[in-house]
Amino acid sequence: MNKQTVAYIGIGCTTLSVMACLLICILGVVSPIYRKYPSKIIVWISCLFILLGVFIYIDQSIVIIESKNPHDSSKSKKLHILTESLIGITITLISNQFILFLNEVKICIYNPFQATSSSVFIFLLLLQCLLTMVMIVIPLLLLQELHLSDTDALSTLNDMASYISFVSCMICTFFYIAIWIILNKNKSLQSRRLYEFKSDFVKQQFYWIFAMSAINITFSFYNYNPHKGHDYLGLKIALSLEGLIFAIFHLIQPYSYHKLLQVFFKSFQDQSYIQDIENIEYGLNTDIHNRLIPTYEKLLKTQINELVKGLVKAVFATLVMQFDHHLKDREIKRTYTFKFHLSELNESRISLNEEEDVRDSIILVNTYYPNSFTTLLKQNNFNKSILEFTLELQYNYKAFEKAKESMGRSGAFFFFSQNHKLILKTVEKSEIKDFLNGRIASYFVHINYHNKSLIAKIYGIYKIKLMAYKTQYLVLMENSFESMQNLEHEYEIYDLKGSTVNRTSRSDERVKKDNNFKQSPHNPISLPKEMSNQIKKQFMDDCRFLRDIGYMDYSLLLGICLEKPQQINSNDYRLVINGAQNTIYSFSIIDYLQRFNYYKKSEQCFKRSMQFKKKKDLSCRSPEPYCHRFLNFIDSIIV
């Protein structure tokens, strides 16, 4: 079999690979599940395989042209080496996917709250591209020092790309084995269903490892050829099939091929399957749910459900201890340790054998300023009975389902209690540290002095270590939207910052933003003169307090209900009635634990350089101008 025949076969194989990877990209466009992180990784790698296929197609076309026109061999040889170098760079980029792969497995095993964070995906993507550039630039600099010719330099670069790819694959394989060991070592600390999902997921990653190993070995032999003049023709064909092999591992998943049937053969597709797919995408439970939903989604739902239940249970147990114990007035931190079985979270335990004693799972909780927060809870009419009805697991099964859908770009989650009274929110360690260091005392003074403050109250700060998960930092807050939710009428929600840049929400988003509010018929908000002045005065006091302690980036959470006003007992400005317009408004200040640190300064510089906007238009600003702009915005929308 000559080179020309192999080139034709390689072109055919490359075409199959590109078509298979295009199917995965189509899934990424039409399927909400594939648009999530880490499913974006699958689409991203498929795009890289398509790019690899294009370069292979060009490379094999050059071989065919060279065989037909041997007189132009010198020119085509240089072009051939150039395309092989581009193949080497693409292979290096694909090989460095172990960065994304390891993070995907890490958040699956360790910190599921960041599993759908787009910002994490973008950061890792940039890190991977940067690493690839470093791997390419350094060899080029070394080759320049050796004063090699262009042809020799490109050939040597191919060899170095082979070594880099092979080492990357070995690193990934090493960590894969380590993950298996860790998973089985902590087997008895997990529920049976969770362990099965984790095992299935890690087994699926073996296919990924296998594809990466195959492409690395193929590429290494293809480039590093100790026998000059001998060409590994079979390896060229194998290299052309790598994208097809990768795509098949994902297209054979039940969700994938049912979704593709729906897209391409909708008229022939069983309508029950279409309904099942749609139910999965919109978060509804069906009998066929576990068969069609991807393994990662099943694992993520089970893991977050178990983790959220454990965190809520830990907070409730801590609050009960705080109410029962005599606490010191200025006690900064108190530590509690709780033991429980996963059966308490409605999950059966794993037992390696029937005679083995299953270990208790231990929750370690650090609660900060327990006496001050307990006093604040009592002042707001909370007692043990209300807390039990608010946070006990048996009253919050629907709330746990909603908590899974509340993850934002930051990877945080919001748990809203079923009776709408409390919110449990994960926060960054740096935010907690900043708040506890010199700001919490001012917070208590402000909240106690201003009984009608619009700042959403914090009722507790916790550091919780649950089983084998990452340590979580949480704040327990009042749900400032409780009164609006208890009206049981349709209402609109706006998250307002007084900014215009990137402050427009899509039509399918529940929470609207500044630009949406400006175009709505509710702008401006008309209130009685005395009420309007009082609310503006309270906004001024709250915003100046946040400015004085160095906070910015907070929002006005505005609720608008166009219903006939009811008799509402409200001692503050959280719920305001305009009887003349039959409208009920809800006001509160949320998300105020953000300081203007180096990260925010960098964000401001980046946005100014990218958007080419004036400073006053950006959401990210220092506390003083942020406060000034926010108050001006409040003054413009409330008349």
TrEMBL record:
The GO molecular function terms of this record are:
1-phosphatidylinositol-4-phosphate 5-kinase activity; ATP binding
One Gene Ontology cellular component annotation?
A: plasma membrane
Coiled-coil blocks: none
Q: Where is the PIPK domain?
A: 303-638
Q: Which PANTHER family match?
A: PHOSPHATIDYLINOSITOL 5-PHOSPHATE 4-KINASE, ISOFORM A (PTHR23086:SF8), PHOSPHATIDYLINOSITOL-4-PHOSPHATE 5-KINASE (PTHR23086)
- The entry's keywords: ATP-binding, Kinase, Membrane, Nucleotide-binding, Transferase, Transmembrane, Transmembrane helix
Instruction: From the Swiss-Prot or TrEMBL record, give the protein name.
Output: PIPK domain-containing protein
PROSITE patterns per the record?
PIPK, PROKAR_LIPOPROTEIN
Q: Per the UniProt record, which residue ranges are transmembrane?
A: 6-29, 41-65, 85-102, 122-143, 163-184, 205-222, 234-252
Query: Which parts of the sequence are annotated with region: Disordered?
Result: 504-524
Q: GO biological process: any one?
A: phosphatidylinositol phosphate biosynthetic process
Residue ranges, compositional bias (Basic and acidic residues): 505-516
Q: Which InterPro entries match?
A: PInositol-4-P-4/5-kinase_core, PInositol-4/5-P-5/4-kinase
Q: Which SMART domains match?
A: PIPKc (SM00330)
